[in-house]
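re: ur question from earlier - yeah i can do the single chain one, its not a big deal. heres the input i used so u can compare w yours
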Amino acid sequence: MKKYIFIGFAFFSLVSCKQEKAIVISDPLPSWNETSNKDAIIDFVTLTTTEGNENFIPVADRIAVFDNDGTLWCEQPLYFEMVYSIAATKALAAHNDKLMKYPEIQALVKGDMEAFMKSGAKGILEAFAISHSAVSPEEFNTMAKAWVDTAVHPKTKEKFVSMTYKPMVELLKYLQDNQFKTYIVSGGSTQFIRIFSQDAYNIPPEQVIGTMFKAEYKDYKITVKPEVFLMDDHAGKPEAIFNIIGKKPVLAFGNSDGDLEMLQWTSTNLLPHLALILHHTDAEREVAYDSLSKIGTLKNALIEGAQKGWIIVDMKNDFKKVYSFEK
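and the output i got, formated as tokens:
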């Protein structure tokens, strides 16, 4: 195992024997293979958190942003939140005639998934809106938490929430231990991700930025409307970071073209910075996909990343383990 030595603190004196020995730091990323990408990440954190060198970043400026779907947890064969939305909408519409006005939702309640899926984006967006706005925020939290605690992936038979990427969870902890403030910036909804972000990633709800529905305050309560307030994808990501965080990140990690603008903006930071892309190349342990996939399409970001020297993390070669449920 490689010994990681913090710059500026590499040696100390032992008075008893007047000998210098290296301070050995345990491997902060044990589920990563020993590759140049791992070295680059550790070098970046080491240099930017060690006072006395030109790459030092003050704690207040250590902002790190991560996409969620396909970056922190699996997104295949369908975005996990969409799986929840379909299940929740089916349950809600079955007891609410007002929600049955859409033929796509009627098909869903009847169990005709073929007809529902044929409706394409229209049916899926309807289900997404219904599942998030047809109940109170408190009821949504209860329903979503119950689903997160019990629902299992069709392929692995593990809970969806257990399908976070172990190497990525380690990276989050490594950054947090070094006083980076870690945020989720996702196309998924803020409501849904906040349900599990603390337990899964040690990221509190207030550090989750996702797609948001319009909220209305009336009669001492908040009601969520089926109207999008913030679409947190593509250019929406840096715009949301600017408006909500108020600082340009020094580290951004994504996996698709939807993250391109966030990576581009981070790369313009005058402070030392790091842009990273997770490339799904492991067909055996996960799913190999990029430019031809309808979920997590990765084409333009991969091209630009290679041109600009961003770190392209190759899942097959860089990840020693994939999922958090792996021992």
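The CA atoms of residues 213 and 228 lie 4 Å apart. not sure if urs matches, ping me
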